[in-house]
């Protein structure tokens, strides 16, 4: 059985998990590439790929009754290796963009990192417990980022302070030169878990910043069968609760 025939058969089946498994040839394995250098999403542990994406990918394949294996691939050659058929798919925090869609096809997103607002612990919380009044407040962001654009469009009375690096904004918050910092929630979470961050600062609220389409499984352009396979697999692990169980091992907030 060819890989394509396996995928088409798996996606078209509507029966039980046993029926899915019976359709899969034990000799056919879907090969998934990952970089192994972007923790907690993918990294190398005991010379083997590990992390959120690896555990999620295995759960997805199990949910579909398919055999899958992970291979390590340097980032610079990731899409090239896919085109050369060294593997069948990419799960390596590959962002879905218009430019990349010209080279590969994508599944539905399997994660998105929200935007978050943080402040010093002494900063008063809003009465509602949500987004505070930012009028006249200084907010640090990465210059020319989606976070800066969001503030300019939605909070024009905020004193926007652009920075070249996230660490610079965090330092100004730490030393009291900023009221808030807005940025990538995972990056800011890591700061809050640091020795300095634990002492000074706290999470305030998520903000609905448009961060694009998210992260998807990349496959060879035009491979509709494999896209359908991964779309169905993502839906199954979310519906079963497996997605949240795996996510909680690596990331302490929702990223769906």
Automatic annotation (TrEMBL):
SUPFAM superfamilies: Periplasmic binding protein-like II (SSF53850). GO terms for cellular component: cell envelope. Residues 1-21 form the signal peptide. The keyword Cell inner membrane does not apply. The keyword Signal applies. It is found in: Cell envelope. PROSITE patterns: SBP_BACTERIAL_3. Residues 29-254 form the Solute-binding protein family 3/N-terminal domain. This is Transporter substrate-binding domain-containing protein. The lineage of its organism: Bacteria, Pseudomonadati, Pseudomonadota, Alphaproteobacteria, Hyphomicrobiales.
